[in-house]
Amino acid sequence: xxxxxxxxxxxxxxxxxxxxxxxxxxxPKGAYDIVIIGGGGHGLATAxxxxxxxxxxxxxxxxxxxxxxxxxxxxxxxxxxxYGLPGNSEFYSHSLKLWExxxxxxxxxxxxxxxxxxxxxxxxxxxxxxARRGNMMIAQGDDAILLDRDGCREILPYLxxxxxxxxxxxxxxxxxxxxxxxxxxxxxxxxxxxxxxVDLIQNCEVTGIDIENGxxxxxxxxxxxxxxxxxxxxxxxxxxxxxxxAGMRLPIESHILQAFVTEGLKPVIDHxxxxxxGHFYISQSDKGGLVxxxxxxxxxxxxxxxxxxxxxxxxxxxxxxxxxxGQARMLRSWGGIMDMSPDGSPIIDRTHVEGxxxxxxxxxxxxxxxxxxGDCFAHLIATDQxxxxxxxxxxxxxxxxHGLMDEEGTGxxxxxH
Length: 417
Prior knowledge:
Blueprint: H1 5-13, E1 31-37, H2 41-54, E2 59-62, E3 78-79, H3 88-100, H4 102-106, E4 117-121, H5 124-140, E5 145-148, H6 149-155, E6 170-174, E7 178-179, H7 182-195, E8 199-201, E9 206-212, E10 215-221, E11 224-233, H8 239-244, E12 253-264, E13 272-275, E14 280-284, E15 289-300, H9 308-321, E16 330-340, E17 347-350, E18 356-360, H10 370-383, H11 397-400
Parallel strand pairs: 1-2, 1-11, 2-8, 4-13, 11-18
Antiparallel strand pairs: 3-7, 4-6, 5-6, 9-10, 10-11, 12-15, 12-16, 13-14, 14-15, 17-18
Enzyme class: oxidoreductase
Family: Belongs to the SoxB family.
Cofactor: FMN; FAD
């Protein structure tokens, strides 16, 4: 069924009895050309682009839970392309262009809102760094505007500009950045992949990866064995565990990243705003809740829950930046499991096992990367060649130290995470 205004009208006047499920619920077949392990945003996007761009439809996406139940449904929904380092700059620029045409591509409303992202700075040094990053964004072909204090005050009047410890000097404005509805992104990619013939198999946990003579031959699952010519691993915070089934030890640590949401309020925040002195970021959802988050909890864990010290830190930063938030009631918080790479940049690459591919290490940036990641991973699996936008996302950079994209300033090791 193609979604349209006519469908909404027709279904509305006939009691909404004609809607059909957005995707099938097939049983797994015994064999596929390609198996994607992980039915999150990246896995679903990979399946969509495999079918759309490369005509590969004998594909299964295996999800141990339900579609949209992982990080793609647990994040602060921010979309941006404001990176400065080569490697990440061209990739996220590519991903943002895909976001801008995504709703037409999927025939699905993912509520992509280009409301703008503003990174505040609070010192001369931070202003210089913001100016350099903005120039690199423009050189990449993206947009960036350096705002002074009065420029920020004009569009963000609710901030505390007179705080004595960390005064606001200005901000780097990225107008094409914004937000999208996270679960709608999962559902849109799922529906599109299903329409092209991809099998989306839920409640199907992979328990082993079959390898013969150095080549992958299939997977073992809780719903039986499945043969496959190629297998892609894209399971975010569980990457190390799944890759270990193929004898790999990844340069990945899994950490908790918390997010919070308040009660629904009247419109107050038109943009996405980040606080340069507290790793705090905030926007307002379509339902009115203020959605915000901070930094990692800073201990490795697979538990999808956070600790109180980081919650306290985030709330302190919120009150410092915009004291008005103290009048809102916080409704809930949640924790997502981040697959943290040492240099803060992802991996999209082949592995030492022929036919086995890896997509992981998205750190804090997984949601905004969904379309770009799916497109580049599909290209790699289909052609065995890296997509030009992801050519630097090599796995071996952590062994050699060559080609690091050191967003974290920590080098090739985890010792500073």
